[in-house]
Structure to design on (293 residues):
């Protein structure tokens, strides 16, 4: 009996010790990844001496990157349309939204967007269409299957719920224009950043050029900590973009994800027609205007 009691006490002591170690591991963050970034991986720390070759000066990298952006814009302007599946994750009003998967079609003239949610389940089946200079420049949408079709201002409260940017900013061309605007308006800040091209990157199994912009601390006009833009080497179009910022109120806090876009299953020159941007298209699921299904 006494021996059995000693064994039970030893087992209890062992369990207590193991529990303490597990608690300490949790408190110290052992093995814990960023809880607010389930999609893209956290930005890796740059290791001193990581690049064997002499790095290209950041100013030269920026000039080369802008030339690539101009070349990519010309490529996009030469094609009428394209389609893709976008994986998207954004931080809105300080909160990281869940990752979304959206099937999209883009036409350049007139600028037109069709979007249909594939995931997550709570958004699955939602559709939206925007065509410049139609529907009073509003988007046509149904926000849940079976809910009536409505027109919404593209930058209105309802349309912007859970989104950093309006539907009018969708597509590869607008992404490049946004990055060129960043370069034009944040010259002083970019001059303090470390810019380089990352080798060996791929998106959807295709080789890419990857321009990385990295900062060790926020500037006066920007809190950008890390940004990467990926251009498909063969297609010469952007296929991925991710950006991280320093948290507000901290100059040394761990960067947080603010934007992530990845374009998969890209079809350039997809041969889109007016029907691809018409809510009456029988292949879509828009309920009749002004009523449910």
């Amino acid at each position: 009996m006494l021996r059995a009691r000693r064994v039970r006490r030893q087992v209890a002591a062992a369990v207590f010790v193991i529990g303490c170690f597990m608690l300490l591991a949790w408190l110290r963050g052992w093995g814990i990844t960023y809880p607010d970034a389930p999609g893209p991986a956290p930005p890796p720390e740059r290791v001193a001496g990581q690049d064997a070759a002499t790095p290209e000066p950041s100013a030269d990298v920026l000039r080369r990157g802008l030339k690539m952006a101009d070349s990519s814009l010309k490529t996009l302007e030469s094609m009428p349309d394209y389609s893709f599946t976008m994986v998207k994750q954004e931080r809105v009003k300080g909160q990281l939204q869940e990752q979304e998967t959206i099937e999209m079609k883009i036409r350049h003239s007139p600028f037109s967007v069709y979007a249909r949610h594939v995931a997550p389940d709570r958004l699955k089946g939602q559709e939206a269409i925007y065509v410049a200079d139609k529907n009073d420049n509003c988007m046509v949408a149904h926000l849940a299957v079976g809910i009536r079709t409505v027109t919404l201002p593209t930058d209105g409260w309802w349309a912007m719920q859970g989104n950093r940017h309006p539907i009018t900013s969708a597509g590869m061309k607008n992404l490049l224009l946004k990055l060129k605007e960043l370069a034009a308006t944040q010259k002083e800040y970019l001059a303090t950043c470390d810019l380089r091209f990352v080798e060996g990157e791929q998106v959807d199994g295709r080789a890419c050029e990857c321009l990385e912009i990295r900062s060790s601390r926020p500037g006066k006009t920007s809190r950008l900590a890390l940004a990467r833009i990926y251009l498909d080497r063969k297609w010469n179009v952007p296929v991925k973009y991710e950006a991280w910022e320093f948290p507000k109120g901290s100059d040394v806090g761990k960067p947080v994800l603010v934007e992530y876009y990845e374009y998969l299953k890209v079809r350039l020159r997809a041969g889109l027609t007016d029907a691809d941007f018409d809510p009456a298209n029988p292949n879509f699921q828009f309920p009749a205007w002004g009523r449910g299904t």
Remarks:
- The domain at 58-277 is CATH 2.50.20.10 (outer membrane lipoprotein receptor (LolB), chain A).
- The chain has one domain: 58-277.
- The two ends are 74 Å apart (CA to CA).
